[in-house]
Amino acid sequence: MFSKTYPLRFGDCDPSGIAYYPSYLRILDGAIEDFFTALDAPRDRMTGAMRMGTPTVTMNLVFQRPGYQGDDLVIDIRVIRLGRSSVDLAHTVSARGETLFTAAHRLVATSLETHTSCAWPDALRAALTHHLEKTHAHDPAT
What we know:
Layout: E1 2-7, H1 21-38, H2 43-47, E2 52-53, E3 56-63, E4 72-83, E5 86-95, E6 98-108, E7 110-111, H3 122-131, E8 138-139
Parallel strand pairs: 4-8
Antiparallel strand pairs: 1-4, 2-7, 3-6, 4-5, 5-6
């Protein structure tokens, strides 16, 4: 599991100090970028040298509690399933010891040349496999 903490800032919240959900998505996207950087695949290298992207195919968020300005958001990212060109991630976002929201998220590897799905490069597949939770499936078909 990858875990990192991010501040919930003034600009992320409405006038009452409660987080805007679009801010959650921006912060979550930053966590995913940090996750791929930790896998030795920073976005600038992915889009530059590797000529690949990782667009979101599906994302299902379930909000449980509000986040407040000044909270430290702990974002946990787990690799649930790895396919030929897709990866399913499970996100848990918490603050003050409570889960604020969870998300089920599928990303797909795509070629920036053809704009179609492509297989994960070997090194990135190995890094993702290293994080794959043992209780979940590996499906080379997708």
